Amino acid sequence: MIVMKFGGTSVGTPERMKSVCQLITRNEEPRLVVLSAMSGTTNALVEISDYLYKKNPDGANEVINTLEKKYMNHIQELFSTEEWREKTRLFLLEEFNYLRSFTKDLFTSFEEKSIVAQGEVISTNMMTNYMKECGIDVVLLSALDFMRTDKNAEPDAQYIKEKINAILKEEEGHQVYITQGFICRNAYGEVDNLLRGGSDYTASLVGAAIDAEEIQIWTDIDGMHNNDPRVVEHTEAVRQLNFEEAAELAYFGAKILHPTCVQPAKYAGIPVRLLCTMNPDAEGTIIDNVTMRGKIKAVAAKDNIIAIKIKSSRMLMATGFLRKVFEIFESYQTPIDMVCTSEVGVSVTIDNDAQLSNIVNELKKYGTVMVDTHMCIICVVGDLDWSNLGFETLATDAMKDIPVRMISYGGSNYNISFLIKETDKKRALQNLSDKLFS
Question: Residue 260: what pLDDT?
Answer without folding.
Answer: 76
